[in-house]
């Protein structure tokens, strides 16, 4: 019979926090280690698209009062992507294609929500104050006869029965657990910013603010993406009143704005201020007819930041150990399908289920992790390939290596 007393999670992103909530809910001792000094050290994006995987993961792992808060701060959208012309008129609405297998039996299917990433992260962190340790950069880990020991840059260590790499695309855990799994430059730079909802409402069609996402592109495959985030204030505040210890910051409704394309159109973005990034984004679409450039100039200058896109190269994991991976640490992808956060939360929920069966003595750890890793890599790398194919078509993404 396997003993499972403590799980170490490296990384406090959405996947790591979802796993921590699942394990805490199952009575398993868990500790989360985050290299950043606080949750707000780095810009990590704004609006997220959540599909069945993430929505049902949140409903499964969170206690009832936090589920209510999650739903009250989510904008449940129409199940379409809006395709726009460069003058921002509607070409067509593409229905979302959902294929989540039997992961969520008996739960709602084909649900889509736009959420604010920071708000979702706050909700997932709720109740975990004694679990999350900031300022802990993993240096290495070592297998021991009775588990695994993690070593951190500040000289401290932690010991557990299982270590999980939820530490993103530059995963220090993956570098040792699976050094053959690599990432490559996708060839794309994107500039992210926030627009006031009212400014967008007067300049874009209604469908663009009701659907999951709206996107326009030109002959260069330079694209403009828009996705709204609306907070139903009264329900959110009522839910927060019934969520003791949960502080969700007040937010104004907004629209995320993403302007991107091949690196050549966005040189030296790392040295530019938010205001200059906003101006670069507007200049990049200045030749488009209509209001695209003017719309971008309505954005909050301080909100703009650049992202250079990378993608994982599909591969396999070798025989399971007491160290495993989830989310971008193993199958990072470009955002063409809007699936990254969804897969991380799906992985975390399935891994949480798996480890809970081990803790209950129903399965051996090696067997349980073998099945988790087999399913996770098969599904995850399938989506990586799909995202790359769509990325090649829509934004001239570099093809994956053979």
What does this protein look like?
This protein is α/β, with parallel strands linked by helices and 402 residues long. It has one domain (6-395): 3-Layer(bba) Sandwich (FAD/NAD(P)-binding domain). It has 13 helices and 18 strands. It has helices at 14-25, 52-61, 64-72, 117-125, 172-177, 197-201, 207-210, 233-241, 274-284, 292-297, 328-331, 340-359, 365-395, and strands at 6-10, 29-34, 47-50, 75-76, 78-84, 90-95, 113-116, 132-134, 138-144, 147-152, 157-160, 162-165, 183-196, 211-217, 223-229, 254-262, 305-312, 323-325. The protein has a seven-stranded mixed β-sheet with strand order 6-5-14-15-16-13-17. Strands 8-2-1-12-18 form a five-stranded parallel β-sheet. Helix 1 (14-25) packs parallel to helix 4 and helix 2 (52-61) packs parallel to helix 12 (340-359). The longest helix has 31 residues, at 365-395. The radius of gyration is 21 Å and the shape is globular. The model has no long low-confidence stretch (mean pLDDT 92).
């Amino acid at each position: 019979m396997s003993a499972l007393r403590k799980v170490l999670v490296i990384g406090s992103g959405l996947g790591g926090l979802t796993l921590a909530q699942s394990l805490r809910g199952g009575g398993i001792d868990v500790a989360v280690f985050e290299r950043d000094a606080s949750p707000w050290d780095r810009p990590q994006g704004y609006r997220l698209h959540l599909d069945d995987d993430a929505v049902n993961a949140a409903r499964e792992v969170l206690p009832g009062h936090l589920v209510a808060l999650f739903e009250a701060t989510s904008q449940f959208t129409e199940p379409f992507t809006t395709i726009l012309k460069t003058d921002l008129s509607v070409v067509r609405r593409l229905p979302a294609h959902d294929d989540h297998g039997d992961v969520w039996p008996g739960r709602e299917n084909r649900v889509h929500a736009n959420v604010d990433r920071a708000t979702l992260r706050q909700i997932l962190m709720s109740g975990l104050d004694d679990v999350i340790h900031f300022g802990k950069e993993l240096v290495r880990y070592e297998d021991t006869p009775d588990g695994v020991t993690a070593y951190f840059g500040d000289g401290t260590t932690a010991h557990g029965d299982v270590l999980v790499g939820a530490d993103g695309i530059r995963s220090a855990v993956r570098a040792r657990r699976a050094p053959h799994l690599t990432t490559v430059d996708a060839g794309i730079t994107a500039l992210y910013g926030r627009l006031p909802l009212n400014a967008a409402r007067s300049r874009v069609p209604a469908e663009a603010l009701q659907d999951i996402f709206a996107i326009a592109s030109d002959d260069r495959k330079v694209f403009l993406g828009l996705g709204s985030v609306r907070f139903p204030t009264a329900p959110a505040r009522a839910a927060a009143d019934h969520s003791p210890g949960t502080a969700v910051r007040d937010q104004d409704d907004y629209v995320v704005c993403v302007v991107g394309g091949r690196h050549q159109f966005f040189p030296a973005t790392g040295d530019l201020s938010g205001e200059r990034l906003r101006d670069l984004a507007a200049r990049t679409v200045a030749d488009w007819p209509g209001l695209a450039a003017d719309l971008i100039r309505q954005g909050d200058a301080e909100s703009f930041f650049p992202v250079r896109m990378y993608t994982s190269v599909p591969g396999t994991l070798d025989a399971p150990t007491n160290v495993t991976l989830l989310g971008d640490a193993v199958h990072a992808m470009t955002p063409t399908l809007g699936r990254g956060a969804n897969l991380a939360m799906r992985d975390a929920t399935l891994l949480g289920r798996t480890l809970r069966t081990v803790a209950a003595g129903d399965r051996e750890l090696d067997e349980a992790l073998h099945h988790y890793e087999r399913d996770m890599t098969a599904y995850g790398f399938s989506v990586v390939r799909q995202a790359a194919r769509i990325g090649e078509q829509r934004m001239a993404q570099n093809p994956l290596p053979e």
